[in-house]
Specification:
mainly alpha; two-stranded antiparallel sheet; single chain; 6 helices; elongated
């Protein structure tokens, strides 16, 4: 009867890899993923990934500072919010991954690294929607009259998409190997 554990259908499998030590603290005893590239490539790749997240975020902020460009225009507001959400999720996943360094717990690897390319693709799709919205807004004459502001409206989704393409390329170059528990 002592061997019978409660069935927990929604329990994450990686919880089984945590065990208590003598002090009562939890210790992870499961498998890890280890970066298998060269030493210098790791830091260079992480820096480039952060640049690929921060530059589009800066472009998004610049567009957000144009009140007439975003507020009250659904062709610009909705894609802007979708881009922001996609970029926020990518940034959060990258924070979790960067914090773990070269040796990362397998479940964190699965929750971050394996799905980051999917979020980058979603970000590219939102950038295409934002570009279409900017063009509709400019053609429909609901965009600001200033040429500089129109350039910002068109350049921001293009910058966003380009940096996300670079992000995907960098991710695909980085290789990891499983290290058993």
């Amino acid at each position: 009867m002592a061997d019978n554990k409660k069935k927990r259908p929604f329990r994450k499998e990686y919880y089984n890899y945590f065990q208590r030590d003598l002090n009562g603290n939890y210790i992870y005893m499961g498998p890890h993923m280890v970066y298998s590239g060269k030493e210098g490539e790791w830091s260079k790749s992480i820096i480039l990934l952060w640049v690929c997240v921060l530059v589009p975020f800066a472009a998004l902020i610049v567009q957000g500072l144009i009140p007439a460009a975003v507020l009250g225009n659904p062709w610009l507001t909705i894609p802007y919010l979708l881009e922001f959400i996609a970029l926020f999720v990518m940034g959060w996943k990258l924070v979790r991954f960067t914090y773990a360094r070269k040796k990362i717990r397998k479940y964190i690897y699965e929750q971050t690294w394996e799905i980051l390319p999917g979020f980058a693709i979603a970000a590219i799709i939102t950038a295409a929607i934002a570009l279409a919205g900017a063009l509709v807004s400019i053609i429909g004459r609901t965009a600001p009259e200033s040429t500089a502001l129109r350039i910002v409206l068109i350049a921001q989704p293009v910058i966003f998409a380009l940096f996300n393409l670079i992000f995907i390329k960098i991710i695909r170059k980085m290789k990891f190997e499983e290290e058993p528990a």
